[in-house]
Amino acid sequence: MNENIGPLALNGPLIVTQIIGFGLLLWFLNRFVFKPIFGILDERQRLIQESYDQMDADRVRMEDTRRQYEQRLAGIEAEAREKIQAAVQEAQALRDNLVADARQQAETIIAQGRNESERERQAAFLAMRQQIVSIAMAAAGKVVGENLSDARQTKMVDDFIGSVGMGAVSESGRGVSGNAIANGSGKGAASY
Question: How far is 1 from 152, CA to CA, in rounded Å?
Answer without folding.
Answer: 192
